[in-house]
Amino acid sequence: MRRVLPLVLIAGAAGAQTPMSPEEFETWATGRTLDYSLDGMIRGSEAYLPGREVMDADTGGPCRSGRWYPKAGAVCFVYRDLPGEHCWHFWREGEAVWARPLTADRDTPAQSVTPAAGPLACPGPDVGV
């Protein structure tokens, strides 16, 4: 019985984090600007444009353009001037949406993903780009 209980708990926790499919993510995110928060503090925002284009800005940082694409059930991003691919799982818990990079371990807190109160603020030379 001791061996079964932990497996049941793990299965239950994994079930609570069933990732959105990339198609579900696209339907939910396209046309929105979303804030990514950790412990109630916004860490960055992204505007999701048609054609899987994105504009990303970390809080206080410059905006950078990019795109997203599905890969093995995850949502992956590439950005101008930022090396590599950045893949995430997004999932729903009731009305809330959460996200965690695939490179994070299970102890890494998930980020809350919510619609932003306004458009993405892009200070600096890339305004309007």
List its traits.
129 residues; alpha+beta; 8-stranded antiparallel beta barrel; 2 helices; globular; disordered N terminus
Question: What would you say this structure looks like, in words?
Answer:
- This protein has 129 residues and is α+β, with helices and mostly antiparallel strands.
- Helices cover 16% and strands 46% of the residues.
- The protein is built from 2 helices and 8 strands, in the order ααββββββββ.
- It has an 8-stranded antiparallel barrel.
- A hairpin with a 3-residue loop joins strand 2 and strand 3.
- It is globular.
- Mean pLDDT is 85; it is low at 1-15.
Going by helix content, strand content and strand pairing, the class is alpha+beta
Tell me the strand percentage band. Answer: over 45%
What characteristic shape results from the CA principal axes?
globular
Mean pLDDT: 85
User: What distance lies between the first and last C-alpha atoms, to the nearest angstrom?
Assistant: 60 Å
Q: Output the number of helix runs.
A: 2
Number of extended strands: 8
What is the H/E string?
HHEEEEEEEE
Which spans of ≥5 residues are poorly predicted at pLDDT below 50?
1-15
Q: Tell me the major beta sheet.
A: 8 strands, antiparallel, barrel
**Number of structural units classed as domains:** 1
With strands numbered from the N-terminus, the spatial order across the biggest sheet is 1-2-3-4-5-6-7-8
